[in-house]
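Hey Z.,

So I finally got round to the S-adenosylmethionine thing we talked about over coffee. Here's the setup:
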Amino acid sequence: MLNNLRSVQFGLTDLCNFKCIMCPQTDFEGLYGSIEEKGMKVHEGNTGFMELELFNRILEDCRKNNFHLGIVSLIWLGESMLHPQFREFFFNSIIFGEETGLLSSVVFNTNGSLLDEKLSEDILGFYTEHNKKIGSTITFSIDAATDETLKQIKRIDNPGEVFKNIENFLREYAKVYKKFTMPMVVLLQMIVLEENHHEAELFKKRWSEILIELGIPYDIGYSAYGECDGDNPVRIVFKRASCKNQEKMNELHTETMIKIGLIEVSEKLFDLNEQTEVEKEIVRHPCVAPFETAIINWNGDVTPCCGDTSLELNIGNVSESSFPQLINEKKINDLRIAMLKGELEKYPKCFHCGNAVLPSISIERLENLCKKSGLEEEFKLYLERIK
Ligand SMILES: C[S@@+](CC[C@H](N)C(=O)[O-])C[C@H]1O[C@@H](n2cnc3c(N)ncnc32)[C@H](O)[C@@H]1O
Ligand code: SF4
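And the result:
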């Protein structure tokens, strides 16, 4: 039985108070795709909030089955701080991790608009008491250095106190972060877009000045990955946008990173060009998602892929089978087998996705996961196929 995943995302809600131009949430037409293309049509009239009881039940089912959730993320498609019980979701996951060891860290992204002083205090106060075993990462999706660009990107007249809220959080954070055994990593993020790339330098400067004033060690990166630990717990990060014209976005990201001195002109950052020409590819490799990740929509529907906004790959609902069971049932195993055989025609979402072009999982790890899923024979077929 497969009893550990690398990450599980809980979509506390698929609603949002913002309409960021590049986000699956938005109906903004253009480079970033229409709402149909982004798969959010299916959520229309079917939006909501995850019940805390459902969340607790899923955790309990994992406890009973000794099922390891890896990194637990408290977001998917919406703004989780809209959930009136957001605190409880965060607190309960950390306590569950401390008690059971069945998760490694708790992470969430937020647009920062609802993070008032009280919520900042509650989150940091709680973590000050509970930081021995479970790590945490908070990503602030800021995407602008000025009010004007913030309004343009978030597409609302009054983006509220986003800058003030995040600055206030950092002020409180500065007072406590040194006491943390497991770091609470904070990412101050800008997704590089046509509408904001001219502000990248200013973004860097604005947040650097604040962090220096507060005495918080930080680094600056062109991706969220890589070292970011207790010594350097904050990162100003410039993320690449996913969009219809991926090649264009990759170029814009690279050019911007060169301009602000984060990469050398000669350095090759990401070469996803092959990934955008999926249909030409002959050898398909298993994507990590059906083997290692799961996303639970607010209503209990489960999909293996965070890009599956339309729940095309839905493997069932946690009200029908427990979550650990769903991860081991036929529906998900059929997708794993299709991945191993490289026969993805029945799964258009995967067929057209670049993730199955480059191997995203080591052979040793895949072998191990296949053993646990009873797919030893199919794994052998994969080895034959890629010889
Ligand atoms: C869908 S949002 C939900 C969480 C929350 N509302 C927020 O803004 O952080 C999750 C993350 O996806 C990022 N995101 C949105 N559109 C994106 C795109 N086209 N490419 C890459 N990341 C994107 C957001 O900036 C955010 O960090
Ligand atoms: S705030 Fe987050 S979920 Fe809402 S539209 Fe922006 S990126 Fe999307």
